[in-house]
Amino acid sequence: MNKKQYFSSVEKSLCFNGNNYRIKHALKNNGKRKTVAFLGGSITMGWNGEEMLRDNYSVFIYKYLCGTYPENDFAYVNMSIPSANSFIGLSILEKNIDSNIMPDIVFVEYAVNNECGREYMISYESLICKLLNLPSKPAVILVFTINQSFYTSQGYMKRIGENYGLPMISIADIIKSLVTDNIIEWSTYSNDWIHPNIWGHKFISDCLINFFKKVNKESTDEEYQFNKQVYSLDYINYIPVAPSLYDISCNGYEEINASEFFEHGLRYIPETNDVFLSFNADFKHLFMTYMHDKTEKYSDADIYVDNKKVSLLQGKSLYGWDNIVMKHICEFEHKGHHTVEINIKDRSKTFVLAEIGIY
Length: 359
Known about the structure:
The chain has helices at residues 3-12, 21-27, 42-45, 57-68, 86-96, 118-132, 154-163, 171-180, 186-189, 198-217; strands spanning 14-16, 34-40, 74-78, 105-109, 139-144, 168-170, 239-241, 249-251, 253-256, 265-268, 276-293, 301-305, 308-313, 321-344, 351-358. By secondary structure, the protein is of the alpha+beta class.
């Protein structure tokens, strides 16, 4: 791949310029500290398949902004965790955005971890609108990645981005084109099947920097008015509940730090007699975040709502690796008071409830 092909690919990655009002405002020096935030999975954390890269695309972008706009005082916040999708992003955002962390620029990257079902479309659009409606009115920039089998959920994400006038950079489109046209091999971009290597992270950062360079040359747009939602905003008011801090009736469980951003979970202690876990809450939607693995480590768990089985949490998954996963358990027509129970199916194995989500 020569330089001309490289820079041509970088320019083509910007698939939608979006409305530049918010990003222009965020880059303008107004004497206040500016927070640059990143929401995504292991790619945005900086994992390259073998180790965590200290210099990854998010750090490159932060350094670029600091160097290009030295009159601004930028702060860096990365709210990404491995395997996170937009469901988990809603939880992390709700728990971490406050007066101390209020972003001015937010990069969102969930295209390889999100599935293409309607619930994922709703969670992604709810997350985007939750960000856009923050008091700081941040500029939201969408980043679309891809895996080796060319899977990406960017299709519906592009529709959402266009609807809200958001800049979109598709690493997915460009990498797929470069590989299928035999300009590069997949191994040029990634050392495994999904995570960018050093070259890949530099390429992503160059694509994002290309967007900023184009913005610098543009006149400022007028603040746009939000259009009607594309799919639904049903999950925008998601409320995370820490199990060990909530009024839960249980026996045979201990508090556990399940993962970063999910510090107050509950772990079932195998072989406990008279084990139970139940709670009461008012909700229309119920979510649960738990841990799964490809081994036999975790038990399945039946979820009962008002004495009726409504869902199964699978402890074993081909794609699990001792990581957290969130599931939408059930939905009612109206918000109401309900009793929830978790029944462990195999008492010889453990089970971790990382979080409850209600709305």
